Input
Amino acid sequence: MILGIDVGATWTRVVLSKESGEFVQREKFRTTTDPVSSAIQVAKNWDFDAVGVGSIGPLDLKAGKVVGSANSPASEFSLVDPLEKLGKPYYVANDGVAAAWGEYVYRWNSVKNLVYITFSTGIGAGAIVNGQLLLGKDGNAHEIGYLVVDLSSGFQCCEGIGYWEGLASGGHMVDAFNYMTAKWGLPPKKKPAQAADVFSMAEAGDEAAIRFLNYWLDVNAAGISDICVAYDPEVIVIGGSVALNHWQFLYDGMLQRLKGHLRVREPRIEKASFGDDEVGMGAIAIVYKPPETLKDFGYPRKGPRPR
Output
């Protein structure tokens, strides 16, 4: 039995699963300043043999901690200190990386090149190239939210201008909407309070919301085009609450726009297989079939996985 922990910017999910990916128990709670300790408390009466964690980043993967998170309640916190106290084998990875590995292990094992992208509070990814999970020197080879997709926007987020995450993620969409519509001299009929309001306003015919969402699709197409030329994937899997709640709008807009961007063979674009459980499933997969590249960062810790 494997304990899977999904540390998100807004929600932390905890699952107990068999190696097959069959969940036995699941809980979720608002992310705290020490989310792994909180997750272990939730699972204190569960019987498990090993732990997998998929967490928001950026990470210092060798140190096992989050460093400089822009969206979570604490910008820096340890992932491994609470796990050390359990005395059980554990693995840690970025949440997008975990989700990519979960898709690869449990759904797309017939391909060798896959990218998972999440559109949620932030924007993140995980990439598998020629069957190898990419991690980078610190475990951050997938922080695509900081790709610059529109420098001319002038919109600043996380001390940078034109970041994909700043212009298109759920956590920043309201600020980006207010900034861009003011720049265009196109005041909306009302001020949105959250990302979902922008979509509702567009459906109701608000001209400012319609223009912004067309711009949002342009930004996302630019970002996904960058992913295609960087990683050359066979499949791009897209998840996260913003994407899943507005899937057809995003999917149709992507297909239409990508044809004008791509200079490489177009990949398949697929909806996430496991919904809200993407990262939890990935955390289980990392324990079940550990990626070779995690060994470079000293995982598993506390000994080999029980057989």
Q: What stands out?
A: Residues 2-94+275-297 form a domain with the Nucleotidyltransferase; domain 5 fold (CATH 3.30.420.40). The first strand starts at residue 2 and ends at 7.
